[in-house]
Amino acid sequence: MTVLAAADRHRNAIVLGVMLMLLGDFMFSLNDAIGKWLMGTYGVGQVLLLRSLAAMVVLVPLAWSAGAAGLFRLERPGLQVARAVLSTLEIVLFYAAVASLPLADVMTFYLAAPIWVAALSPFVLGEKVGWRRWSAIVIGFVGVVVALGPSSASLSLPALLSIAGSFAFAMMILLSRQLRATSDTALVFWQTIGALVAGLVIAPFDWIAPEGGDLMLMGLLGVVALAAHMLINRALKLAPAAVIAPIQYTLLIWALILGYLFFGDLPDMYTAIGAVIIVGAGLFIFERQKKTTGVPKEQVQDIA
Q: Which UniProt keywords apply (predicted)?
C-alpha cells in the first residue's frame, strides 16, 4: 500500500504540475494581450517602467523573506548582467513587434526559440546535437521563412523584431542553463531590475500621462507576469521538465484566441503553415533531447 500510495502521490504531483503550467501559460498570454492593448497608446519604455515597478512591489518582499543575501552573492556576475540585458532586450523587442503584428504572428516567431537553443547549444554549451535534431533545426528555420511570407515585402520591421526577440530569448535560456546555482528568485529579481533601469532610460522620451484604467493595466502587467513565472517554477518542481516543456506551445493557442477576441486578428495562411512547421520541429527536438540528455528545466521560460 505504501508503494501504491507513493505512486499515486507522484502521479497527482505530475497532474498538478501540468495544470499549473497550463495556468501559467494562460497568464503569460493574458499579459501579452494586455501589453498589445497598451502599446496602441503608450511607448515601450513607459509600459516597461510601470510594469517593472509593479512587479518589484510584489517581488521585493518575496525576495527579502527568501534571504536578501542570496540576491547579492551571485555566481558569474558577468553572465548575470548579460542575462538581465538579454531579458530586457527580449521584452522590448516583443512589445515593439506586437504593437504592429497580431499576437499569434509574434508568438509563432517566438516559439522558434527552442530551435535557436538547439542550434546554438553545441557552440555555447558544448553539447552534442545529432543529425536528427540538426534536421529538425533546419526544418524549423524553414518554418520561420514560410511564416515570413512569400516575398521580400513580408520582411517587415515588426517581423524582424520578432525574430530578433526570439534569438535574444534563446540566448537568455542558454545563459540560464549556465547559472543553475542561482535561485529562481534571484534570476527574476535581477532581470526585473534590468527592465526597470531600461524603462527609466527610455520612458521620458515618449511619456504620455496614463489614464487611471491604463495605469492599473500597466501595473497588472508586472503582477500577472510575476504570478505566471511563479506558477511555472512551481510546475517544474512537481513535474519533470520533459513533461512540462511541450506545454509551452499552448501559448500559440491562447495567442490565437485572445488575439481574435480582443483585436479581431487572425494569422494569414503562411503564418499558420509556418507555425505548424515550427511547432512540429520544436516538439521533435524536445522528444529527441528527452531521449538523449533530458530536457533541462531552464528550457521552460516565460515569454514577455
A: Membrane, Transmembrane, Transmembrane helix
The C-alpha atoms of residue 40 and residue 91 are separated, in whole angstroms, by: 16
Give CA–CA dist 192/49, Å, rounded. 10
Neighbours of 286 (CB within 10 A): 21
Between the CA of residue 170 and those of 58, 90, 96, 120, what are the distances in Å?
A: 27, 9, 18, 9
Residue 148 pLDDT class (50, 70, 90 cuts): confident
| Long-range pairs, 191-195, Cβ under 8 A, ≥24 | 191/83, 191/84, 191/87, 191/88, 192/52, 192/55, 192/56, 192/59, 192/222, 192/226, 193/52, 193/56, 193/84, 194/84, 194/85, 194/87, 194/88, 195/48, 195/51, 195/52, 195/87, 195/88, 195/91
Q: Can you read off the three cell numbers belonging to residue 164? A: 530578433
Residues 186 and 59: their CA atoms lie apart, in Å, by 10
**Average of per-residue pLDDT across 260-281:** 91
Which of the two residues, 86 and 290, has the higher pLDDT score?
A: 86
Q: Mean per-residue pLDDT for 177-204?
A: 87
Q: Using an 8 Å Cβ cutoff, are 55 and 223 in contact?
A: yes
149: left (phi over 0), alpha (psi -120 to 50) or beta: left
Residues 6+ apart with CB under 8 A from 222: 50, 51, 52, 53, 54, 55, 56, 57, 58, 192
Q: Tell me which residue of 190, 280, 231 sits closest to 29, measured CA to CA.
A: 231
**pLDDT at position 1, please?**
47
Global confidence as pTM: 0.87
Domain boundaries, the chain: 2-299
Identify whether the C-beta of residue 48 lies closer than 8 Å to the C-beta of residue 202. yes
